[in-house]
Amino acid sequence: MALAIKKRLGTYVETVDGAPAVKKLRLQTLAADAKAGNFGKVGNEERKLTALSQLDAYVGNLPAGSLVLPTGAPVALTGAPSSAALGNQPAAATGAPQMTAGNSRELLELLVKITDEISYEDVESGELNDVANKIFHLYQLQERDSDTSIRVKLLELLSGLGCECATEQEVTLIIGYLIFLLRKEVSQKVIAQGMMCLFRIGERRKHVVPISYNKQVAHLAKEQLRSGSTHTQKNAMLVIGRFATKMEGERHYVWKLAFYIDSQDSGVRAQALHVLLTLGERGSLLPAKLYKRAVEAMKDDYECVRKEALRLVFMLGNRHPDHIIPSDRQQEELRMIDAAFSKVCEALCDLSLQIRVLAAELLGGMTAVSREFLHQTLDKKLMSNLRRKRTAHERGARLVASGEWSSGKRWADDAPQEHLDARSISIIASGACGALIHGLEDEFLEVRTAAVASMCKLALSRPDFAVTSLDFLVDMFNDEIEDVRLKAIYSLTAIARHIVLREDQLEIMLGSLEDYSVDVREGLHLMLGACRVSTQTCLLMVVQKLLDVLAKYPQDRHSTYACMRKIGQKHPHLVMAVAVHLLYVHPFFETPERDVEDPAYLCVLILVFNAAEHLVPIISLLPTATHRHYAYLRDSMPHLVPQLPIEGASSASATHRIDSAVRQAGSSAEYLQMILSHIEEIFTMTDERVELLQTAQSNLQRLGAIDAGMYGTSNFLETFLAAQIQIEQMQRCASTQRSRVPLKESLAALIRNCLKLQHTFSGLNYGDILQVKQLRLRACALHLVLVVRDRSQSALGPCQMLLQTAGDISEFIKANTKDEEEKPPMGALPLIEPDVSMKEPVSRDAQPDSFTRQLLSKLDGISDPKPGRVFREILPLVQQAPPLALPPANDKIRRCVANILEPCPLQSQDNVIKVTAGLIAAVPFVAEIDNLLESQKADMRIKIKYPDQHMHTVVPKQSDFKPIMTEQGEHETNVRLRTTILLSHSVWTESSLVEIQLCLAVRPGSELELCKPANVLFAPKPVRRGI
User: Fold this and answer.
1) How far does the chain reach from its first CA to its final CA, in angstroms?
2) Gene3D superfamilies recorded for this chain (predicted)?
């Protein structure tokens, strides 16, 4: 067939009825026969590298087999083709034209054009070999004293072919050509380009290159290090860093590269340090003796050298933390990690901004540093106790040896005072003293941000340092840059478990709560909820300030509620002491009942109720009206108010039956398995199957509402089961004629459920995706059958959709089957040792069912896929299709859902947005989106529906999506969308509701709603004319 199923007839274009004039349904076959090995000859019209055929005029007749290098073994072991056979062949003998200045210029222009236009994707092995031979032969025809640009361009074409090679044989062929050509080359410009070509191939195909070729390429690069060209030396070092094996790097190349740290060229020095870092990152053990060379390189005049030397000092300090080295300024011995920490601290005073930023970032990774060195970074003064201390015995012995008497001014006096050398005052380098303070006070925000991040990392590993650094992080709340303030807030949130806030620190923090930035305010709410306070006065300060700021910024109520919840959970005893004061409870008189809709009163209730969860006696202090308010809040805000033993509270009777069933099953997972086993039994029945499946569907829906952890799994199975029920109901319509209107609605609902399964769920494994695609295939087949039977609308669209869906599932099955069959070649050893953290291969035991296999076989046998022909072939299969089994429960499935916070559903009914007709009203829009993948952000849409059924779709900016912050840092998949919506319309007689909804645009004309719509009252008023 056409687009969906591959046919072994090459690439062609068909129409449904076979006539070229019909353009409505154009079905194209996928040109993938070459991948399947069905390409008969390389020279047919499916060649991908047709642009290189323009070089035939310059190559001439290529003797068959004369230029192919042996690929079964390395070139050095088998021998390269002799120069008599390859390099010194006259042009007349090969039939190529003689190269002149004009021809060389034309060839160079042609090569530049080919390089810009060529595409290497999906190139066949045979074609690649022929093209590589052609380029190799053309390179041999170039004279050594000719223009080097031609040879450079030819090497670039060879490297492009090598980067797209998929097998070991193809890669070794290209590398063998490059090695042979570079050994014969004398131009340093061409050799430098050849080294870069080898480096690119190593970057793209490092796991395909065999170990013997790795050694050979690295040896070739080692020979080029003696070149007089610095460009060649730098590129050769890159090749060594990419191709040298771990053992060879430790034995031969580390000290060879270390020799070039003292090169006269700054680029060579920087490249040598960079390649040493690359070898270390790939697993080679860098000796501790390199530390001294790296420290000397940190004093280089060039920034690029100092930057790489700083990285090397950091790596050596972490690799050899306990290696003892002599101190520079005293006859003392230091641990290498302490000495490296001091050197990195000194780099914070470098003149270069990039080096200061890098030094500030690297400090956070040196967690093994000694306590004295770490705490000294927060003090600018050289403390007296950092002097070299002598024992009393040493002092007495020195006094006796001097022959002088003590002055007797005080006990154990060391007078006369010896002469102190300025270099011997401190065993800690002066750069380490106050290094982090220097970073926090830097004039550039990049340095300050990096210093705050490093301070946070060090504080997480050292609780005593967290207490010391608290004051400095709090001072950063007053920074003039918002990003720095946010970084300080989130850093303090991360280390909150190690600290307790004092009253003076709270004053600075609470002063920042009135910041104009909503991100800063929400970050402070998160931080205050994570921290602990020391006294009742501190707690009252926090609560009162939060209530004052809430009155000023009502839009912060959601983050304020969450903050109050955390504060109550962390301070139950303090809340008990101030609960009466916060609730205005009089000891003798009954106070009036407060409004439960008041945000300030809600904050206090949330605080008290969450504290009562951990300290039940608080309930006895609450007035009677508070019990009724608890029942209301427990039903309206279950995520903020916990379950408490208060009489009169709602028991959630709607889900009581499911609750008892879950308790009886033992866990949500066991109850889910029980539902799935019941569904399997229902599929074996014939009578009342649909009613029983609908009951199971409601159970799955309620299970997701009870257990948030099982929401994604249960909702996925519930949506799958709903689509299965719709298919079963429509199968009955395939044999009888029904009315068209409900048929269209039910078909649209079925397709929408299939799109939901495909696009709104993440974490699906191979079996889940296969079942969803099979369900979509059944829905499309049933859609075509019903439309053809209806005879009131065109069947071209449903037929096209069926063929596309069949092609998609066929490609999916073949691609995964091919991935299982392909194994890495035995000789292709990776350059880098295998990572133990690599993901395990996904189990792919799931197979397509009999209906899918038969349907694909039927469609594959149709040569002219017209709707009528396809309908007659698939009708028996659709009528007799057995139900599709539900996929097994997968607890990693998550569903993308949204919650609109602004405009608020409760307050939007009271506030009418009034605007002159034709003008624009700006409405703030805030929504939280859970489990949103990075690829789905571009498909997110805001749909605005006016009362006259006009709909507008708004595409939010990518910068409006920001990750939701938690106490552990940024959430991976939960984001907050904060933007502004513009509303405009003509004159209305009265205010009406405008619906605002978040959708996911999966295809043109199809949006999947992610939440319930938020309604706002909008009233465009007529224009006033005159006064």
Assistant:
1) 74
2) Leucine-rich Repeat Variant
